[in-house]
Amino acid sequence: MARISSRLGLINILHNPCILIVWLIVLTTFIYLWLLVPPGGVVEYHVYSPNFVEFNVSTDNVLHYNFTFNITVQNLNQKIGVYYDQIEAVAYYHGEKIGNVTYSTPFFQGKTAATFLNPVFTGSSTALRDSSKLEDFNREEKEGTFRIVVKLYLWTRYKFMFFNTPQHQQEIRCQIWFHVNSYRNTTTTGGCRMR
Question: Where are the membrane-spanning stretches (predicted)?
Fold first, then answer.
């Protein structure tokens, strides 16, 4: 009996032209937006020009840091704009959070536009209170290379013509290596990828 009534409900929906038109519009919009968004996403992220000023440990095992880098956020799509409601850059050292920078002023990025960000991380952290983390730091200090992972947390919405998608959160993971030994003081980046 329940199966017959559900079939009758479906038949009634299909015979109601208003409901059918609304469903066709929603379905067509969804398929069209799906075809517009490339498989790798709409936006590309690049980290470059890191500048390493300070990264050392005091006698009480407190990590003192001061570094910066540039981020390019590039909208690759020619038909979709992106609203950024908030961006947070969080720096990690061996899985421990050492600092964060938040961009809380919303902005819109038009089609094929690029936005440049320059987060500055400065302060101190107790991330090395664990003896194994301190051993990692001492080893990397001897080797002359520190690896920092920066995660970008983005709250975005996409705009196509007069349609706006609901807000969703993305996580982008970027790697930076700071080489700080006696014969070179350089930095390299390992690129960014969406998680």
Answer: 12-35
What's the CATH number where 61 sits?
A: 2.60.40.1470
- State the Cα–Cα distance between residues 66 and 58, nearest whole angstrom: 14
CA nearest to 169, candidates 194, 132, 150, 190:
194
Same domain flag for 71 and 111: yes
Tell me the pLDDT tens digit for each residue of 37-72.
544 567 888 888 878 888 888 888 899 999 988 889
Please tell me the total count of domains within the chain.
2
How would DSSP label each residue in 131-190? Answer: HHHHHHHHHHHHHTEEEEEEEEEEEEEEEETTEEPPPEEEEEEEEEEEEEETTEEEEEEE
Do the Cβ atoms of 63 and 57 come closer than 8 Å?
A: yes
> Do both 180 and 155 map to the same domain?
yes
Residues 51 and 136 in one domain: yes
